[in-house]
Specification:
By secondary structure, the chain is α+β, with helices and mostly antiparallel strands. The chain has one domain: q2cbj1_9rhob like domain (Jelly Rolls), CATH 2.60.120. 28% of the residues lie in helices and 19% in strands. The structure holds 2-oxoglutaric acid. The site of 2-oxoglutaric acid has 13 residues, from β3, β5, β9 and β10.
């Protein structure tokens, strides 16, 4: 009897805590969940991710100063879950995926892609942007889990959000890829002048979640250590391809505009009873340049 009452109380506490998370997410377009993962888990994944990046970037000998402005914000390696079974455990970690599904208010979600984002020591800021317009997904039912492998503060690439900006339903494409974003123009065009960026201190084990339409940015890395972060982007099961914009996650499995986005490249992430298999869909030569850069899996 005592244990039943204890269990019910515990579940009620969890439920109300989650309700609060969801309310905050709906209101602000982001939420940081404290202590979601154990420090020992992060320690393990940090090493695995660092090794994976080293392997992917073997042919890239450029120094930070020789990289493009965009690449000076971070080194990016996508779809690591395909190549590295241990990283797959993190990308499809059911604690993370369950919260992502809950925040999106969905029973089932799929992976869009994962990616490591390493802001090297001395790396510049990440320009302000939001993610959804980069993806040819029609429905705005997308969420990113940002999982730092180190403590993150104002000195080492801290992530910051324009709280509530997802509600504007602004789908303009902000070009962070071809040079520095003009700040003045950005805030004027997006009408974000009145919103102070909400930067987040994060401890090891904390995970941040942001909606695909929430504007965000990150500070430069002024510290001596690289800021290693693993991110995973999920979308609601049932979403469809909205436009022709080229993207690995839909062009590799040849999903056409209007079709449902479902293939082994974007398997169900939650709920799952076991880890998904490595995709069998081949990677055609049109992705060669990305493969050479270590951005994508080799085969
Ligand atoms: O890690 C960063 O510097 C930026 C992260 C970001 O833009 C994202 O995860 O959507």
């Amino acid at each position: 009897m005592f244990f039943t009452i204890l269990l019910i109380t515990f579940n009620l506490v969890l439920l109300s805590m989650n309700e609060d998370l969801k309310n905050r997410f709906n209101e602000d377009g982001f939420v940081v969940v404290k202590d979601l993962l154990k420090p020992s888990e992060i320690e393990f994944y940090r090493e695995v991710i660092k090794e994976a990046i080293k392997e992917r970037k073997l042919l890239d000998e450029r120094k930070l100063k020789d990289k493009s402005i965009y690449e000076q914000s971070f080194t990016q390696c996508q779809n690591l879950w395909e190549d590295y079974e241990q990283i797959r455990q993190l990308t499809f970690h059911q604690k993370i995926c369950e919260i992502a599904a809950y925040l999106l208010d969905e029973n089932a979600i799929r992976i869009w892609h994962d990616q490591a984002l390493v802001k090297e020591s001395g790396g510049r800021e990440t320009d302000p942007h939001h993610d959804q317009p980069y993806w040819p997904i029609k429905e705005s039912k997308t969420i990113t889990a940002w999982i730092p492998m180190c403590e993150v503060n104002e000195n080492n690439g801290q992530l910051g959000f324009y709280a509530g900006s997802h509600k504007k339903d602004d789908k303009r494409f902000i070009d962070i890829f071809s040079g520095k974003v003009d700040e003045e123009k950005f805030v004027k065009e997006t009408n974000l002048e009145s919103i102070k960026v909400s930067y987040q201190n994060m401890n090891i084990g904390d995970v941040s979640f942001h909606h695909g339409l929430t504007f965000h940015r990150a500070k430069p890395n002024l510290s001596k250590e690289d800021r290693v972060v693993h991110t995973a982007i999920y979308f609601a099961d049932g979403c469809t391809r909205g436009d022709e914009k080229f993207h690995f996650s839909v062009d590799r499995p040849n999903i056409k505009v209007g079709e449902m986005i479902e293939s082994d490249v974007t398997p169900i992430a939650y709920p799952i009873a076991s880890m998904p298999d490595r995709p069998r869909t081949s990677i055609s030569d049109e992705f060669m340049a990305y493969k050479m850069l270590g951005l994508l899996p080799k085969d």
